[in-house]
Each structure stands twice: as C-alpha cells, then as structure tokens.
# Entry
Amino acid sequence: MARALELASRGTGQVSPGPLVGCVITNSIGEVVGEGHYIYEDVMHAETLALQQAGKRARGGTAYVSLEPHAHRSRTPPCTDALINAGITRVVAPIEDLNRQVSGRGFAHLREAGLQVEVGLMAREASEVNEKYLHFMRTRLPFVHLKAAMSLDGKIATKSGDSRWITGREARTRVHELRHEYDAIMVGAGTAEIDDPLLTDRSGLRRRRPLIRIVLDENLRLSQTSQLVRTAADSPLLVFTGEHAEASKAKTLRDLGVHVVTSGTRDLVSILKELAKRSVQGLLIEGGATLAGSFVDAGLINKATFFVAPLIIGGREAPGPVAGSGAEVVRLALRLRDVKTTERGEDLEITGYPEKFREQE
# Structure
C-alpha cells in the first residue's frame, strides 16, 4: 500500500479535477507483477495500467489501490470490471472515494462479484495524499492552504516593506513545489501592488492545467503594467473586485486578458464557491497579512505552512504574517495538529492542520 501511495503521488499536478490514484498488483504468491498510476490526460486509470503490466499473472492475485475503484462508466470503463475480469480475488484499499458517483459502489460491486475487499490499511496516509480532492468532494469548496515566510521574531518584512529575501534558496524552491500541488494561488491587493509578484509555478514539474493566479482587489488598484497583468495572456489571472470599482479600469484589464469578477472581496465563501465552479480543488494563500487574517478569522484555513528564517528583523511597525481580528485569549487561538517540521537549508518549514479541520476528518 505504501508503494501504491507513492505511485499515486507521481500524478501530482496532473490529475485535477480527479484524484491521485496508484495501484500495485501482486500474484497469487505475493510477488509484485504490475504497477500503475493515474494521469488525467493519459485517460487510463491506475488499475488498468497495473493490470496490463501484470497480464495473466494477475489471476488469483491482489490489487492494492490507493482509493476505492470506480464502478461507473465515465471517461473510461469501470475499474471494478477490469479487476473482476482479470481474475483478481482480493482488493485492498485504504479509503472510500467521496465522489457521489463512486462512494461505496465500487466496493459493493467487487464484493457482489465474490472478491475479498479490505478497507482501512494506511487510511490516514491515503487521506493526506488526496486531501484536496476529498475535501472538495465533501464540501464542494476548495481546500485552502495558507503559506507564509517570516523571520524568527515573526516578521514578513521590515518596517520599510522590504521582504526579499527572508528565506533562503531551499525554502523558495520548496514554495514552487507547493505551488505545483495547487490549482490556484491567491494574494491581496496590497501584496500585488507592493511586491509586484509573478505568482507562477517555476518548479519545472509537469502540470496538467496552468496555475490560476488570483488577486482580491476591492477597489481595482492592480496596475496594468504589473507583472501579473503583463503575463495574463500566458498565465490565467482572475481578479475579484467590488461592484463600485471603476468600470473603465475593469474594461482595460479585461481587454488585456484579465478575468475580472465584480462580486466583491469580503464574502470569502462566495469566492470559494466561484472557484469551485472553475474546478479549483486546491487554493494556496500566499499573501499578505490582511488576506491571511481574513481567511483565519473566517475559519476557512484547512492547512498552514510557515517557513521560519533565522533572522531577527525587529521594529514595532514591521508586519507579521497574519492580521485580521485575531484571538481575544490564547485558548481561542487557532491551534495546529499533526505538525511536521522540516529543515530547508538554514530555514524551517512548519506545516500543520487546524484542530477543527482534523476533527471533521
């Protein structure tokens, strides 16, 4: 199963809006005879690829699949049919697929055909591999991941606004790997104006769809000479603005290839619903403090990653990574669980899940 999850992860950036799926086939005496992982554009599912590699050796064997096989016809024939017809006698899967077309039906079809089905092995690890997909299927909203880089004393910039570069090369490389995992990346109007970022995925890894760049800009301050606007024809740029934003500015941006949505920027759930309509399963929040604070206050953060550099910036006016209303008392602060700490050169990457999110899992 660990190998099936490893194979599934190879599809990162290449399966959305589908799930990450890996499959390992063993023969009747437990030898690995076939492997496969799902890539959206390749159409064939992980199970089918692994069965093709195994051939006749699959008969009487076991399929270890990282997610419940589907029993309905979509772009491909049912994977359950492929497993049954190949003579597989046992299927091991960690979790159920929460897609309403699949959920429970795949396991039921296999059991009806006389196959032994075991569910639960490495369920926690499998849920983490597909956390964006599963959250989207459960809530019909994108999975929101907050990312920030700060100094040891909790500053994201100096009092003059300088922030390049707080973290080192290894941490910045990791940020592009994170961008590769997500369908969209979001910043606030202030970050877009001050930092003039590009917000592209420069990981060098294959991805199926271009990263959608999003700016929340109530008053449409975004300059038509910014890097974001100048590259709108090459990388999708979506700007949410208020109904009272200057119409001529909106028209100019649209003429330059920017998708302008005049639904306002304060109702974050409505924004997430709009992104869901655009098949955005995973959203990376990358700046600044006001935007981060709004999502934290609204209880919409599903995962958080902070890169901490061994710097002491100081200064009362130097900004921190999260603004907003904040907690009145420490016991009401957003506490992270399942925290992992990884060294990235001289910096630390600290990642965890808000306690309430994990409770829902």
